[in-house]
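To whoever is on call:

I kicked off a structure prediction for a single chain this morning and the downstream step that reads the tokens threw a length-mismatch warning. I double-checked the sequence; it's 437 residues and nothing unusual in it as far as I can see. Pasting both halves so you can look.
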Amino acid sequence: MIPDPNYFEGIIQRLNTGIVIVDQVGHIQFWNQFMKLNSGHDREDVLGKSIYDIFPEIPQSWFQKKIDTVYTLQHMAFTDWKKRPYVFRFPTTRPITGEVEFMYQNCTFSPLLDEEKKVAGVLIVVTDITEVAEQTLAMQRLTNSLEREKREQQKLITKLEEAQNQLLQSEKMAAIGQLAAGVAHEINNPTGFVYSNMGSLGHMVEDLMAVIDVYEDQLCRNGVPEAQEAVRQAKEKYDFDYLKEDLVSLVKESKDGIERIKRIVEDLKGFSHVGESEWQMADIHKGLDSTLNVVWNEVKYKAEVEKHFEDLPEIECIPSQINQVFMNLVVNAAHSIEKKGKITICTGQRGDQIFISVADTGCGISQEHLNRIFEPFFTTKPVGKGTGLGLSVSYNIIKKHHGHIEVNSTPGEGTKFVLWLPVKQPEIETEQEAAQS
């Protein structure tokens, strides 16, 4: 037995889903209880009327295109709440937040065919998807929040790693400084007495030669022929004239060598500045000279060093840190030169700032690498030849000194770094002054 059509309509009216039937121009032909409850319009008020009049907020061109598509293709069309949150503006209470907003909806547009298999209308089914949508959005917000936290944590971890490695680099430099100072101190004592002894030895050699000259003179005047002949043979055997000349030369060269050792020791002590971690006035040229002497073994086989120093005032700085920057720049310059080249160091003053430039005739730096040279751990050197921290540490030291670094480079021609430093460090504002300004 086929049930009464009113039976099916009763079921449709009680569905928790919106059912609307419109013709090709959008006139409403059917309207169920769900649509009445959510729109506030009775069935009798909307039948035969344009859906665009009942819901003026509907984008008409888009909605009409859906209807035309169904009529033309006789296929179902679909709208998803993610792309279009709602078609009909029905107020609803959000299950997650409890706020009253609009109902999220999925809508299907299906063709209704007559006996001749032609489209007689479009069945629009409106599904309330608010709860699922809210849960999905809440999950998405949580996921996005977790992703943001993850990115922030990763940034923090990266910064901590940078800080840790820079701290290790600073500690390593401090340890090298302590070692250099210790070595300098240990070398200084024996060097001191050897230098003193060499001075005494020089005088003694001069005196000894004077005595020998007297002996020779007296022997030539008063000596018996046999004695003179014995002395002559001995002098010839041992090449006395050469020994006499070379002995003086050896003493002089040894004394020069000891003086060189003393200068290196002094430069080691000046470079390390052990115990000097406070701001103080310092001579930049002394720092450059001591640094060059300390790293000379890295430079002397690679480059000729030219210095063009202008008169500079002492500047307020932490000398050991500034010397570390000089060392990084000079060693990098030497490493960039493959065979033989030139390193030019210039200084000068412009207003209340001084500059130190270090230019080389090395291989240069490409533009893509030039933008990254101050990044921690970035290096173009082969594995095991560099940590990628030298320029990063140098950048932070100069920044700490309220200065800045300029760099220009041409691949195949060379690179030039220019350090700018204030003569006097700016006064640090107190918290109270900063709050008032």
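Update from on-call: the warning came from a stale cache, not from the record. Cleared it. Sanity check on the structure: DSSP finds 14 helices and 14 strands in the chain.
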